[in-house]
Write a structure and sequence with these properties.
Layout lengths: L8 E5 L4 H12 L3 E5 L6 H15 L4 E4 L17 H26 L4 E6 L3 H4 L5 H21 L4 E8 L26 H13 L10 E4 L8
Parallel strand pairs: 1-2, 1-3, 3-4, 4-5, 5-6
Helix pairs in contact: 1-6, 2-3, 3-5
Amino acid sequence: MSDALKGRIAVVTGADQPIAQGLGRALGSEGATVVEVEGAWNSREAADTVFADVRDRFGPVDIVLHAAVPAIAFEPMDLVDVDDERFEAIWERMLRTTIFLLQAAYPQMQGRGGRVLFVTPTMSMSGAAGLAPYTAAVEAQRVLIKATARQWGPEGITLNSLAPAPEHLPIGMSSTEVSLAPSALGGPGDPELDLGPIAVFLASDAGHFVTGATISADGGVWMAP
Protein backbone atom coordinates (compact mmCIF):
# COMPACT_ATOMS: atom_id res chain seq x y z
CA MET A 1 0.00 0.00 0.00
CA SER A 2 1.40 3.36 -1.09
CA ASP A 3 -1.52 5.74 -0.46
CA ALA A 4 -1.32 6.73 -4.13
CA LEU A 5 -4.99 7.73 -4.02
CA LYS A 6 -5.17 9.17 -0.52
CA GLY A 7 -7.84 11.83 -0.24
CA ARG A 8 -9.39 11.00 -3.63
CA ILE A 9 -13.11 10.36 -4.03
CA ALA A 10 -13.98 7.52 -6.42
CA VAL A 11 -17.35 6.50 -7.84
CA VAL A 12 -17.51 2.87 -8.98
CA THR A 13 -20.52 1.79 -11.03
CA GLY A 14 -21.59 -1.78 -11.60
CA ALA A 15 -20.69 -2.70 -8.04
CA ASP A 16 -22.87 -5.81 -8.33
CA GLN A 17 -20.21 -7.29 -10.66
CA PRO A 18 -17.11 -9.04 -9.23
CA ILE A 19 -14.80 -7.17 -11.63
CA ALA A 20 -16.02 -3.81 -10.28
CA GLN A 21 -15.87 -5.02 -6.69
CA GLY A 22 -12.24 -6.11 -7.08
CA LEU A 23 -11.17 -2.92 -8.80
CA GLY A 24 -13.00 -0.88 -6.16
CA ARG A 25 -11.14 -2.68 -3.38
CA ALA A 26 -7.86 -1.95 -5.15
CA LEU A 27 -8.66 1.77 -5.29
CA GLY A 28 -9.69 1.74 -1.65
CA SER A 29 -6.52 -0.05 -0.58
CA GLU A 30 -4.53 2.89 -1.97
CA GLY A 31 -6.43 5.43 0.11
CA ALA A 32 -9.39 6.38 -2.09
CA THR A 33 -12.85 6.83 -0.62
CA VAL A 34 -14.88 4.47 -2.80
CA VAL A 35 -18.60 5.01 -3.36
CA GLU A 36 -20.23 2.02 -5.05
CA VAL A 37 -23.21 2.31 -7.36
CA GLU A 38 -24.81 -1.01 -8.27
CA GLY A 39 -27.07 -0.14 -11.17
CA ALA A 40 -27.07 2.37 -13.99
CA TRP A 41 -29.32 5.36 -14.65
CA ASN A 42 -31.71 6.14 -17.45
CA SER A 43 -31.58 9.93 -17.36
CA ARG A 44 -29.19 12.83 -16.99
CA GLU A 45 -31.11 13.96 -13.91
CA ALA A 46 -30.59 10.61 -12.18
CA ALA A 47 -26.85 10.69 -12.88
CA ASP A 48 -26.60 14.29 -11.66
CA THR A 49 -28.39 13.28 -8.45
CA VAL A 50 -25.92 10.45 -7.78
CA PHE A 51 -22.89 12.66 -8.28
CA ALA A 52 -24.37 15.56 -6.32
CA ASP A 53 -25.03 13.22 -3.41
CA VAL A 54 -21.44 11.97 -3.47
CA ARG A 55 -20.14 15.55 -3.54
CA ASP A 56 -22.35 16.57 -0.63
CA ARG A 57 -21.32 13.57 1.48
CA PHE A 58 -17.62 13.26 0.67
CA GLY A 59 -16.48 16.07 -1.62
CA PRO A 60 -15.96 16.50 -5.36
CA VAL A 61 -15.43 13.32 -7.35
CA ASP A 62 -11.86 12.70 -8.50
CA ILE A 63 -12.15 9.23 -10.03
CA VAL A 64 -14.88 7.44 -11.96
CA LEU A 65 -14.64 3.72 -12.66
CA HIS A 66 -17.52 2.68 -14.89
CA ALA A 67 -18.37 -1.02 -15.13
CA ALA A 68 -22.19 -1.00 -15.04
CA VAL A 69 -23.88 -3.20 -17.65
CA PRO A 70 -27.58 -4.15 -17.83
CA ALA A 71 -28.01 -7.86 -17.14
CA ILE A 72 -29.81 -8.40 -20.43
CA ALA A 73 -26.58 -7.57 -22.28
CA PHE A 74 -25.06 -10.85 -21.12
CA GLU A 75 -27.88 -13.00 -22.52
CA PRO A 76 -26.69 -14.64 -25.78
CA MET A 77 -28.89 -14.26 -28.85
CA ASP A 78 -28.33 -14.64 -32.58
CA LEU A 79 -28.15 -11.25 -34.28
CA VAL A 80 -31.08 -12.05 -36.59
CA ASP A 81 -33.30 -12.44 -33.53
CA VAL A 82 -32.39 -9.11 -31.91
CA ASP A 83 -35.45 -6.87 -32.05
CA ASP A 84 -35.76 -3.14 -31.42
CA GLU A 85 -36.68 -3.62 -27.76
CA ARG A 86 -33.59 -5.71 -27.00
CA PHE A 87 -31.30 -3.40 -28.96
CA GLU A 88 -32.70 -0.44 -27.04
CA ALA A 89 -32.21 -2.24 -23.72
CA ILE A 90 -28.56 -3.03 -24.46
CA TRP A 91 -26.84 -0.75 -26.99
CA GLU A 92 -28.94 2.37 -26.47
CA ARG A 93 -29.08 2.07 -22.68
CA MET A 94 -25.35 1.45 -22.31
CA LEU A 95 -24.44 4.43 -24.50
CA ARG A 96 -26.95 6.76 -22.89
CA THR A 97 -25.72 5.74 -19.42
CA THR A 98 -22.16 6.42 -20.54
CA ILE A 99 -23.00 9.89 -21.78
CA PHE A 100 -25.06 10.75 -18.69
CA LEU A 101 -22.20 9.61 -16.44
CA LEU A 102 -19.64 11.74 -18.26
CA GLN A 103 -21.94 14.75 -18.23
CA ALA A 104 -22.52 14.37 -14.48
CA ALA A 105 -18.84 13.85 -13.66
CA TYR A 106 -17.43 16.71 -15.70
CA PRO A 107 -18.63 19.66 -13.57
CA GLN A 108 -16.90 18.17 -10.51
CA MET A 109 -13.62 17.65 -12.39
CA GLN A 110 -13.67 20.83 -14.44
CA GLY A 111 -10.74 23.06 -13.61
CA ARG A 112 -9.22 20.60 -11.14
CA GLY A 113 -8.58 17.45 -13.18
CA GLY A 114 -9.81 13.91 -12.76
CA ARG A 115 -9.56 10.30 -13.87
CA VAL A 116 -12.21 8.33 -15.75
CA LEU A 117 -11.72 4.60 -16.31
CA PHE A 118 -14.10 2.35 -18.22
CA VAL A 119 -14.15 -1.44 -18.07
CA THR A 120 -14.31 -2.50 -21.72
CA PRO A 121 -13.62 -6.24 -22.11
CA THR A 122 -11.38 -7.34 -24.97
CA MET A 123 -14.43 -8.87 -26.66
CA SER A 124 -15.18 -5.41 -28.00
CA MET A 125 -12.09 -5.80 -30.18
CA SER A 126 -12.34 -9.49 -30.99
CA GLY A 127 -16.10 -9.88 -31.20
CA ALA A 128 -18.15 -12.61 -29.52
CA ALA A 129 -20.82 -14.84 -31.05
CA GLY A 130 -24.27 -14.18 -29.64
CA LEU A 131 -23.33 -10.92 -27.96
CA ALA A 132 -23.37 -8.48 -30.87
CA PRO A 133 -25.31 -5.62 -29.21
CA TYR A 134 -23.12 -5.77 -26.10
CA THR A 135 -19.78 -5.92 -27.91
CA ALA A 136 -20.91 -3.14 -30.26
CA ALA A 137 -21.86 -0.97 -27.28
CA VAL A 138 -18.51 -1.55 -25.57
CA GLU A 139 -16.64 -0.68 -28.75
CA ALA A 140 -18.72 2.49 -29.02
CA GLN A 141 -17.74 3.33 -25.44
CA ARG A 142 -14.07 3.06 -26.41
CA VAL A 143 -14.58 5.52 -29.29
CA LEU A 144 -16.50 7.91 -27.04
CA ILE A 145 -13.68 7.77 -24.50
CA LYS A 146 -11.13 8.74 -27.15
CA ALA A 147 -13.18 11.67 -28.39
CA THR A 148 -13.85 12.93 -24.87
CA ALA A 149 -10.22 12.48 -23.86
CA ARG A 150 -9.20 14.86 -26.64
CA GLN A 151 -11.74 17.44 -25.56
CA TRP A 152 -11.09 17.30 -21.81
CA GLY A 153 -7.33 16.79 -21.90
CA PRO A 154 -6.52 20.50 -21.49
CA GLU A 155 -8.45 20.41 -18.20
CA GLY A 156 -6.24 17.64 -16.82
CA ILE A 157 -8.99 15.03 -17.10
CA THR A 158 -7.89 11.67 -18.47
CA LEU A 159 -10.13 8.92 -19.81
CA ASN A 160 -8.95 5.37 -20.46
CA SER A 161 -10.27 1.87 -21.00
CA LEU A 162 -9.24 -1.19 -19.01
CA ALA A 163 -9.90 -4.35 -21.02
CA PRO A 164 -10.19 -7.56 -18.98
CA ALA A 165 -10.74 -11.11 -20.22
CA PRO A 166 -14.28 -12.45 -20.86
CA GLU A 167 -13.97 -14.75 -17.85
CA HIS A 168 -14.67 -11.71 -15.68
CA LEU A 169 -18.18 -11.41 -17.14
CA PRO A 170 -21.22 -13.58 -16.28
CA ILE A 171 -21.43 -15.07 -19.77
CA GLY A 172 -19.78 -18.47 -19.33
CA MET A 173 -17.29 -17.74 -22.10
CA SER A 174 -13.55 -18.37 -22.02
CA SER A 175 -10.79 -16.38 -23.67
CA THR A 176 -10.06 -19.19 -26.11
CA GLU A 177 -13.59 -18.86 -27.49
CA VAL A 178 -12.83 -15.36 -28.75
CA SER A 179 -9.13 -15.77 -29.53
CA LEU A 180 -6.88 -18.16 -31.39
CA ALA A 181 -4.37 -18.13 -28.52
CA PRO A 182 -4.61 -18.97 -24.81
CA SER A 183 -3.54 -16.53 -22.13
CA ALA A 184 0.22 -16.02 -22.19
CA LEU A 185 0.19 -15.54 -18.42
CA GLY A 186 -1.94 -18.57 -17.69
CA GLY A 187 -5.34 -17.07 -16.95
CA PRO A 188 -7.57 -13.99 -16.72
CA GLY A 189 -6.06 -12.72 -13.46
CA ASP A 190 -7.60 -11.58 -10.20
CA PRO A 191 -9.64 -8.35 -10.41
CA GLU A 192 -8.10 -6.86 -7.26
CA LEU A 193 -4.57 -8.24 -7.24
CA ASP A 194 -3.76 -8.37 -10.96
CA LEU A 195 -6.00 -5.81 -12.63
CA GLY A 196 -6.30 -3.54 -9.61
CA PRO A 197 -2.76 -2.13 -9.75
CA ILE A 198 -3.35 -1.10 -13.36
CA ALA A 199 -6.52 0.73 -12.39
CA VAL A 200 -4.68 2.41 -9.51
CA PHE A 201 -1.93 3.59 -11.85
CA LEU A 202 -4.40 5.07 -14.32
CA ALA A 203 -6.35 6.72 -11.48
CA SER A 204 -3.28 8.19 -9.79
CA ASP A 205 -0.95 11.09 -10.52
CA ALA A 206 1.47 8.58 -12.03
CA GLY A 207 -1.00 8.01 -14.88
CA HIS A 208 -1.52 11.68 -15.67
CA PHE A 209 0.08 11.41 -19.13
CA VAL A 210 -1.97 8.42 -20.33
CA THR A 211 -5.32 9.21 -21.91
CA GLY A 212 -7.54 7.83 -24.66
CA ALA A 213 -5.82 4.48 -24.33
CA THR A 214 -7.13 0.93 -24.06
CA ILE A 215 -5.02 -1.16 -21.71
CA SER A 216 -5.49 -4.87 -22.35
CA ALA A 217 -5.35 -6.67 -19.01
CA ASP A 218 -6.45 -10.16 -20.02
CA GLY A 219 -3.28 -12.07 -19.27
CA GLY A 220 -1.92 -11.81 -22.79
CA VAL A 221 -4.83 -13.06 -24.92
CA TRP A 222 -5.45 -9.97 -27.02
CA MET A 223 -2.11 -8.77 -28.37
CA ALA A 224 -3.22 -6.94 -31.50
CA PRO A 225 -2.49 -3.21 -31.73
